[in-house]
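Researcher: Going back to the complex we discussed earlier. I've cleaned up the inputs and rechecked each line, so this should be the final set. Can you rerun the prediction on the complete assembly and write out the structure?
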Amino acid sequence: MRHVAIVGSGPAGYYSAEALQKSLGEGVRIDMIDRLPVPYGLIRFGVAPDHQSIKAVSRRYEKVALSPGVRFVGNVTVGRDVSVAELADLYDAVIFATGAPDDRPIGIPGDDLPGVVGSAAFVGWYNGHPEFAGLDPPLDVASAAVIGNGNVALDVARILSKTPAEFVGSDIVSHAFEALGNSAIRDIHLLGRRGPHQIQMTPKELGELGHLEDSLPKVDLADFPPEAEDSALDPGQRKSVTHLREFARLEGEKRKTIHFDFFARPLAIEGDGKAERVIVERTRLDGDGRAVGTGETYSVHAGLVVSCIGYKTPPIEGVPFDEQGGRFANQSGVIGGGLYCVGWARRGPTGTIGTNRPDGYEVAEKIAADFGEGGSTQGGAGLDRLLEERGVDVVSFDDWRRIEEAEAARARPGNPREKFVAIEEMLLARGR
Ligand code: NAP
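Model: Rerun complete. Updated structure for the full complex:
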């Protein structure tokens, strides 16, 4: 019997478990270790609450979780409750699928002012991540700036724009639902340091902005290259740019406006003891498509600034780290010494949820090939002994299913669940 520990129970973790089962069949036991008492990582805490069809992929992970030979070992922090060296000793292989949950800092003057938050914190707040549930972002302001032109910036702008009725069917947590319902924000500036052709937004998600109940996207066609140049774009990007051009034709009066401010590089955030404006430099593209400053600056009024410029993986003691890349040091998923990594912890924070699937399969194949003779590790039995000695309150998958039931039972009408946002509440909801 082979024993594998997977650290992290998000998409990359579950695809790896699925792949290991396919390649090793009944000869493998898998423990999915998560620092939280609830599984699914990015699906629960990253994917926007109004994108339930994307979240539905967790049903596929549940199948894996319920299959024989796979355990969920929740509420256990690797590096605190158990060390990497101990895991390496107990298991034949350890896979890090810890994602990239930390914000990459924007690093401009004023980025530490109250009212400036990173997307991990802001998204964690509206998705009920225990670490960020108390964020309390300022929404009593007229104008917000969202830095970045990726899908996360798009999620944040959309969530700031929606009416309460547009959240029916979502699993947005009550504290965010109520705060957003009372929000005074009328103008949302999406600050992109490059132009319309360089956005990192996917067409389906971008198109949604054209159909919001009380919010209109606004673009300035003067920022666009001649329309004929769109044909050189790849089909997905062309679709996105077509959406942007269509936004210019939208008419009508709505309460909120999402301004696409292109060629706008944030230089500093200013204000009297809190964020009040972003100082922006107008840019242009150089021959390689990079943003270069023109020296012309202006200011964008913003009492809330959400920086959506990408994420990084937090290091774990005992796992070699690539500081530059903000992920574990690895060669195609192999760290060395029986350690592997997958997903964003391997590649950095790019790609869709499905991108993690081939990644998991590749690493599973490598692990199967690396297994020599032997297989004398203790696996989960050894881990259980250690955690019991240390008094760690471990959450099982059965426990999680009771938590899940309790969350469904207290959902607002029309919504799938009302998440518990405090770890103690989650532990209590196990009912044992
Ligand atoms: P992303 O796609 O890499 O976008 C990051 C954005 O931040 C880019 O527009 C980038 O501009 C900008 N940026 C980076 N550093 C900056 C700086 N110092 N100043 C100003 N702007 C800066 O990252 P993301 O939006 O965090 O998304 C992460 C991944 O999750 C992506 O693969 C995304 O597609 C995926 N995702 C998917 C969905 C969905 O499918 N519904 C939802 C959310 C996230 P440059 O291009 O100029 O570098």
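Model: Worth noting: The two ends are 32 Å apart (CA to CA).
Researcher: Good, that matches what I expected from the previous run.
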